[in-house]
Design a protein that fits this description.
The protein is mainly alpha-helical. Helices cover 68% and strands 0% of the residues. The chain contains ten helices and no strands. The chain is globular, with a radius of gyration of 18 Å. The relative contact order is 0.20.
Length: 246
């Protein structure tokens, strides 16, 4: 019995480590895309545009936008998990911290590798914290909530949200460019790959008694194939499936 409890504790500890390492790396990857200056992920375009408008740091803007989006869950009757709330704060703080450590990048010969590193690191981060299964990010929860309430497809709802986000961010001064396109093309395959790499084995007790519901702390969200340009994950996806972060 004590060995089973110890294994369960170890499993939970690993999930928590994956969650927070993944969220921190997500913020760092977004900061690298900012430093590369070749275009951001869709929500990053909005965050940067709001930063240009308000003068507030992009990490703080990310936190504020995440909190506002989370409030929109209330009428949609979505239930946040630990990962949802952590996503709001950790990503923004990690982003500002990385920007403070990494200075401006000059020259296309350096900016392109930094952009590529940011995109790959974003895929690693997404795989890490989706696999931790602690609840969807605020933006994906908004998407799945609208999907349920309106009856529209996930792809249509996500596309509508992200087009609105990108256009608004660009009009406010956000960076839209080659990095945005490459992110859209690469993030789905990268997240699929790293989700498999970081997938956690079932706890011993679960394996012994058969399959059960994921221990995520929240109701599982419907899973779908990766959409190519999103900032937040939906937790508890089947192996190899995910809806992507912010």
């Amino acid at each position: 019995m004590s060995s089973t409890t110890a294994r369960g504790t170890t499993h939970l500890t690993r999930r928590l480590v994956q969650l927070y390492v993944g969220l921190a790396l997500y913020g760092a990857s977004s900061a690298l895309l900012v430093r590369a200056g070749l275009g951001l992920e869709p929500w990053g375009v909005l965050h940067q545009g709001l930063t240009e408008l308000t003068g507030v740091s992009i990490g703080v803007v990310s936190i504020i936008v995440g909190a506002i989006v989370l409030l929109l869950w209330i009428p949609l009757r979505q239930r946040p998990g630990l990962g949802t709330v952590s996503n709001v704060f950790v990503v923004g703080l990690a982003m500002d911290g990385t920007l403070a450590l990494v200075g401006d990048v000059d020259g296309l010969g350096l900016r392109i590798p930094v952009m590529a590193l940011g995109i790959v690191l974003n895929g690693v981060a997404t795989g890490l914290y989706i696999a931790a299964r602690f609840g969807p990010g605020p933006r994906d929860g908004l998407m799945t909530g609208l999907n349920r309430v309106t009856g529209r497809s996930i792809r249509l709802v996500r596309t509508a949200i992200e087009v609105a986000v990108v256009v608004t961010g660009f009009l406010l001064g956000g960076s839209l460019g080659a990095g945005t396109v490459l992110y859209a093309l690469a993030i789905g395959p990268l997240a699929q790959l790293f989700l498999r790499v970081f997938e956690l084995p079932a706890p011993a007790a679960t394996a012994a008694t058969g399959p059960s519901a994921p221990a995520s702390g929240t109701a599982a969200e419907p899973a779908t194939a990766p959409s190519p340009a999103g900032p937040d994950p939906v937790a508890t996806p089947p192996s190899g499936q995910a809806i992507l972060p912010q």
